[in-house]
Amino acid sequence: MEKFVTLTDTAIPLDIENVDTDQIIPARFLKATDKQGFGDHVFRDWRFQKDGTVNEDFVLNNPKYKGSILVAGNNFGCGSSREHAAWALVGYGFKVIVSSFFADIFKGNSLNNGLLPVQVSERFLSELFQKVKENPKTEITVNLEKQSISVTGTNLTETFEIDPYKKTCMINGYDDIDYLLSKKDRIEAFEAQKI
Amino acid sequence: MGKTLFDKVWDAHVVDSIANGPQVLYIDQHLIHEVTSPQAFQELEARKIPIFRPQQIVATADHNTPTLNQHLPVKDALSRNQLKQLSENCQKNGITLYELGHQYNGIVHVMAPELGITQPGMTIVCGDSHTSTHGAFGSIAFGIGTSQVAQVFASQCLLLTKPKSLRVTVNGTLKKGVLPKDVILYIISKIGTNAGTGYFCEYAGEVFENMSMEGRMTVCNMSIEMGARGGMIAPDETTFNYVKGREFAPKDVEFDKKVAYWKTLPTDADAVFDKEYTFDASDIEPMVTYGTNPGMGIKISGNIPSLKDASFKKSLEYMGFEAGESMLNKPINYVFIGSCTNSRIEDFRVAAQYIKGKQKAKNVTAWLVPGSKQVEAQIEAEGLKGIFEAAGFQLRQPGCSACLAMNDDKIPQGEYCVSTSNRNFEGRQGQGARTILASPLVAAATAIEGKIIDITQQLN
Ligand code: SF4
Questions:
Q1: Which one of B31, B107, B110, B420 would you pick to mutate in the ligand 1 pocket, going by the greatest count of ligand atoms within 8 A of its CB?
Q2: Are residues B243 and B353 located together in one domain of the fold?
Q3: Cα(first)–Cα(last) distance of chain A, in Å?
Q4: Of A166, B99, B137, B421, which residue has the fewest beta carbons closer than 10 angstroms?
Q5: Is the domain of B36 the same as that of B99?
Q6: Are B142 and B13 contacting, i.e. CB atoms less than 8 angstroms apart?
Q7: Is the C-alpha dihedral spanning B441, B447, B452, B453 positive or negative?
Q8: Residue B109 lies in a domain
Q9: The domain spanning residue B296 has which CATH number?
Q10: Last residue of a domain, which of B275, B300, B327?
């Protein structure tokens, strides 16, 4: 897993609530048996019309907006547990998702793939949307060490929560398997005493 | 202070705790399927880590399987490859697999309970969010991502932070024609799609106590649709009777010993929940959804609300509905009875009872997809197949089918489908398809009439 410490970049504003993982990656793209190529299909049915032509109205197709930070509406990543959603977002080039609320499984999946979910207040989120829409060149800095997110050249800043264990993993690029394997003895002892 | 059912099962599975961090939770049973497991097998292989406890894993092929001609090779090359990978991975690692055509094959959340793999007090995981279904037995069951599938492969454990507790109590008696599906659609419509995020939910009260195991599974199945990782119902005589005698259930003395333990699991009277909701059964009517998330539900005779926000408008636009209008008499061309929410024998009995002697409307394509080979066999044994065929319904072979439309069972662009599945997201049943979630009874009635009708009027 890639390490994450800080990031400064522009953002893409996806001002839609309840974005579910079926939208992030539709089920018909789940037939692959490896993790490659999902980035091409991220938000497939929003990015393209049914006839395969590009949907100019969708924000990812708007040349004004670029960046590895996705700012999204409340309750991002609800629905299916498919980790393909996280792979698709990472594959497309996102490193951070900002929202006022993330669905549980999606949050875990992101953290396991080096994609940082940054949960901010409703107010901060709406100010962020406004800033990015007003000026697509707006730069946002996410500092995982300090657990802070701020908009360059403004006093707009907020801290965010993250599980301390997960924070250590992200900063060092560790994953849970390494940790669990180091606990083998305890796990076996647990099995032995279990009824 | 007393403990909740959830506390008791959770605490009995904690192997270790990280200071200020997650806990190491032991997993008793791991269920896998073809779509969310290949990358986990790959990960372990790449890192040369063996599967730690292959005998605690059971696999099935369900998400990506055809529902016609299952005896023939699967036509779609990508699907065929995915199924082949699962077979190879299971064989290589000594994992039990009920592949396509096997007498125990079926949707993972239908197959495991009916085989007695699912038991009270267990921890159960699967790379599928509707793993919450198994909570109906008083087990902690929840969906996981593929990285976590790899973690369980490697260590039979997961690193997790204990969720908060939530209880939904429904007392009273359900009205005629109100099914477990209506109960859960009602609850989600009341508390919303993220009321449960960060929580594990317990369903309590007379309505659930009086419900069959199959009904309880329908309810727990949709816990994830209110954001909860899982839902649970206290094990009782109904649970024990269901488990008893099933293929993988404990036998004889072993069973009695287990029952004695299971009886200690229900929530203590003085236990405190972080959040509670209470509803009255008499307030619940047959439900339908009108929007693009499962919380957008109304009683069948009600009107679509009028809300101002942008997502509400976007949702109605997608569905082609107007704020304030009634859903009654909306013409419907597709009906799907199936999915891990409603594809068990009781669901088909309810449908058959209504359909018997009637004819499906001409405009309707009606698919009935059993949850497992065993349900399929039971449908035949009980003579329901004849009823369905005489009425013009298509009885297909088991699998997830049009619930997620990964195979050929897709609802065409712009068409409405009254579906007994659990998600009405945009494009879930096919690109541009419009899903209306309902109970098997409402689905059957819609197929007969070719439109949504007020089933309550007809029943009274
Ligand atoms: S029936 Fe639908 S919800 Fe259930 S396991 Fe299959 S795809 Fe998932």
A1: B107
A2: no
A3: 37
A4: B99
A5: yes
A6: no
A7: negative
A8: yes
A9: 3.30.499.10
A10: B275
Say whether A16 and B314 touch across the interface (CB within 8 A): yes
Shared domain check, B293 and B248: no
pLDDT at A195 (0 to 100): 58
Q: Are B120 and B104 in contact (CB under 8 A)?
A: no
Residue position matching structure tokens 């006022």: A100
Per-residue pLDDT reduced to its tens digit, B11-52: 999 999 988 889 999 999 999 999 999 999 999 999 999 999
Nearest atom (ligand 1) to Cα of B33: 5
Nearest to B314 by CA among A108, A134, A189, A73: A73
Q: What is the mean pLDDT of each run of 10 residues along chain B (460 residues)?
A: 96 93 96 96 96 98 94 91 96 97 97 98 97 98 95 97 97 97 98 94 98 98 96 98 97 97 98 98 98 97 94 95 97 98 98 97 98 98 98 97 93 97 96 97 98 91
Structure tokens at B398: 């088991």
Side chain identity at residue B12, one-letter code: A
Which residue in B63, B146, B157 is closest to A83 by CB distance? B146
> Domain check: are B94 and B37 in the same one?
yes
| B86 and B228 share one domain | yes
Nearest residue of A to residue B19, measured between CA atoms: A165
Tell me which residue has tokens 């799609």. Answer: B193
Identify the bridge partners of residue A159 per DSSP, sorted by sequence position: A148
Host domain of residue B13: 5-275
Burial of B137 (0-12, 13-18, 19+ CB in 10 A): buried
Q: Which residue has the tokens 């429904």?
A: B170
How many domains does chain B divide into? Answer: 2
On whether both B357 and B451 belong to a single domain, the answer is: yes
Q: How many Å lie between the centroid of ligand 1 and the Cα of residue B206?
A: 28
Tell me the C-alpha distance between B374 and B204, whole Å: 30
List the single residue in B26, B143, B154 with the smallest CB-CB distance to A190: B26
Q: What is the pTM of this model?
A: 0.94
Ligand 1 pocket test: pick from B222, B369, B422 the residue with the most ligand atoms within 8 Å of its Cβ: B422
ipTM score here? 0.91
* Residue B227 belongs to some domain of the structure: yes
For residue B156, give the nearest of A20, A176, A187 by CB distance. Answer: A187
Residue B144 in domain: yes
In a domain, B177, yes or no: yes
**Protein residue whose Cα sits closest to atom 2 of ligand 1:** B403
How far does B13 lie from chain A, in Å, by closest CA?
A: 9
Contact B78 A32 (CB under 8 A): yes
* B235 and B295 housed in the same domain: no
